[in-house]
Amino acid sequence: MQPSGGTHFRVWAPNRRKVDLLLFKPSGETATFPLEAEAEGYFSGLVVEATAGSRYKFRLDGGDSFPDPASHFQPEGPHGPSQVVDHRAFQWTDANWPGVSIRGQVIYELHIGTFTPGGTYQSAKEKLPLLKELGVTVVEVMPVACFPGDFGWGYDGVDLYAPYQKYGDPDEFRGFIDYAHSLGLGVILDVVYNHLGPEGNYLTRYSDDYFHREQTTEWGDAINFDGPQCEAVRELFAGNAEYWIREYRLDGLRFDATQSIFDKSREHILATMARRARAAAGAREIILVAENESQEAKIARVPERGGYGFDALWNDDFHHSAIAALTGQRSAYYTDYFGSPQEFISAVKYGYLYQGQRYSWQKKQRGEPALGMDPTAFVVFIENHDQVSNSAYGKRLHQLTSPGRFRATTALTLLAPGTPLLFQGQEFGSSKPFIFFAHHDAELARQVHKGRTQFLAQFPALSSAEMRERVPDPALPATMELCKLDWSERKRNPQMLALHRDLLRLRRSDPAFRLQLLGKVDGAVLSSQAFVLRYFVEAGQDRLLVVNLGADLHLAQAPEPLLAAPEGKSWHVLWSSENPAYGGSGFIDPDGRDGWRLQAESATVLSPIRGEPQKLDSI
Length: 619
Fold this sequence. Notes:
This protein is an alpha/beta fold. β6 and β7 (65-66) form a beta hairpin. α8 (316-327) packs antiparallel against α9 (341-350).
């Protein structure tokens, strides 16, 4: 919309001779406004009659009409008319909000449609104080770009600029963000720039040059970021990254599956989007996070060192080692992990485990050197939307392993120097699964269901005909309903909630776990399932995190210098995963007079004190 009134429209349709704006009036009448042809294939025009709330489509060459490729809202879904949005109308209250930087953050991933029974921005907003109380600092919202159907994960979006109408209107999304800021919570949005969904994608009606025909992804044709007429394509996507930061005051973006974004341009499109997103933030700080299965470390390096300027990368290696250790699963993409103590130590110290070595599952090298990168650059987790859904029935990890092992690995995740991420409901031991769901028409729904069963068949245990028949149908409303959190479980599972809350408090309050500095943590293997991490702090205030995922272990001899207390001090139990408050069986001081005794399936934090060890102090 224009400050002086009316709305200026502009659309790229290089293969069209004529483009008209069709304005749908409340009376039911349709007004037609021809747009003027510009250079480089654009058509534009100012329409005084179009105001906030006006609905419209573009008619191409006098024939069919289609939604705006850069629509800011689709109140009737991706097949309906676009709606004019006045981005100046919302009254923000966060004028002094400084934004967020990556250091010190605890990320919480949620899906608006299943986070609450209501499945809206408004109902999700009501739960934000609970996340603040937990110790979360940044909320990561799964994709909201408009997608077809009554429900879905959001990764098949087709209107990049238009928030999904079933969750609420644009100002309700702004209200969610504004309220989060008032609580001191940042909000980042998951964005998908590697493909568009198969239904409701009208880009090719405007130009065939939006996609590469010779370059494909697992979801179809790749986006044309470096081929003929790519400039307008790059502008649509780079402008979208800028748009979310500027118009919705988001605190950053999480980029989905960046290994499927192909670009040989002088400046990679990811670097372009990072640069423009930061410029849109102005004085505010934002964080940019990438998922990258290929583990291209350069994404999180500064441009001066040949990087793309992102802040962090999802560390799947950490997750895969945890799954191997906690469940024994070593098939499909878990094949190259043992879940060994050394893997955990290396992941804590160096981030990615695969930094160029051969990866047998893919029969090729995987990763780039990442030694020397800041620990904050690696997002660590034991649950996220993908990984929960990739078990047989979308079960949560605490349902697939023992309580002790889960508590111990939770401690490792939340006290590691990386950037921790929790998935919705993880903090209170949600029993609700997270299964793939997507609402499409009948034929496409059948194809999606078939594709899902084929994907899961990479796991031998899920490849039988019997198991394929049991894969929940993504198109059924019941599948999505199964995934909605039951918030009464938060009250029914106080021990699990206390575990996460206390660990995050310890992370926030203790300098050893707050530092997140490169080279300040070292580790040693103590047995085939036990290890120690030492956090180095000035003035002899080091911390030990001792993790034992196996049976009780007695080390009568402990020839490992990392276990030695600072001079003149002895180790004192600061925190234990076996505390009865968390459902544990009680704990002991592992540094005994007859050597070290590590309880089975436990994690223990030790701090140094002068003199003899004392009882556990409350944190």
